[in-house]
Amino acid sequence: MGNLLPYHFWCNEFILKRDIEDIEDIKLFVDEFYLKVKKDRLIGPVFLEVIPQDWQPHLNKMYAFWNGALFGIPGFKGNPFAKHAPLKIEKVHFERWLYLFDETIDQYFDGQMATDVKKRAHLMAQMFLNRLQGMSLGADKVIF
Q1: How far is 18 from 39, CA to CA, in rounded Å?
Q2: Domain-located, residue 1
Q3: CATH label of the domain that carries residue 116
Q4: Which of 20, 69, 124, 125 could cysteine-pair with 113, CB 3.0–4.6 Å?
């Protein structure tokens, strides 16, 4: 009798997708996403200029941010826009960020929460882009 397992399973390509359920899932997608970001030729240099070495503090903030956004768990403190405003980023950077984010979510998850996290990321990116484009003083002169 032949192998009864699906091809993807015995080739180590099979990933059983489920919805985002808890902080461990958030850590998975945040970690995997930022691995892609660091290697990306367009947005990698932008991030690496600001975070050249120790990424763990940034990752911890992202865990807390998404845990609060998705599950209402308090813990995130900060002003994400203020951190991004001085960066030399344009629409193409946001598009790439969203592509990598969606790709990461779709790689590991499927379900209502997975759809929700992608919608939230798109809304946040659009809001950031709108605010950056609307700043008449320039990003380096923003008062928060």
Answers
A1: 26
A2: no
A3: 1.10.490.10
A4: 20
Q: How far apart, in Å, are the Cα atoms of 125 and each of 6, 44, 93, 119, 120?
A: 38, 17, 10, 10, 9
Amino acid identity, position 72:
G
* Within a domain: 10: no
| DSSP code of residue 18 | B
Q: Using the structure block, give the residue that is written with the tokens 């911890």.
A: 60
Residue type, 139: A
Q: CB of 109 within 8 A of CB of 19? A: yes
The tokens 């992202």 sit on which residue? Answer: 62
Range of the structural domain that residue 117 is part of: 18-141
Tokens of 48: 């690496």
Q: Is residue 27 part of a domain?
A: yes
**Number of folded domains that form the chain:** 1
Express each pLDDT in 97-128 by its tens digit. 999 999 999 999 999 999 999 999 999 999 99
Q: Is the CB of residue 111 less than 8 Å from the CB of residue 18?
A: yes
Q: Which amino acid is at 71?
A: F
Note whether residue 61 is domain-resident: yes
